[in-house]
Amino acid sequence: MDMSAIASRLGLSDSRPVVRKAAELRRLCDVTFDSSVLGIGEVCKAIICLEIAASKFQVMFDRAEAVRMSGMSEKAYIRSFNALQNGLGVKATLDVRELGIQFGCVRLIPFVQKGLSLYKERFLAALPPSRRASTDFGRPVFTAAAFYLCAKRHKLKVDKLKLIDLCGTSSSEFTTVSTSMADLCFDVFGIAKEKKDSKSNRELLDVLPSKRKHDDDSDSSGESSGDDQDELDLPTYKRHKKMEKEAYSAWKSSVLSSNKQTKPDPTKPRKQAQLNFKKKPSDIALEVSSAAN
Question: What pLDDT does 124 receive?
Answer without folding.
Answer: 86
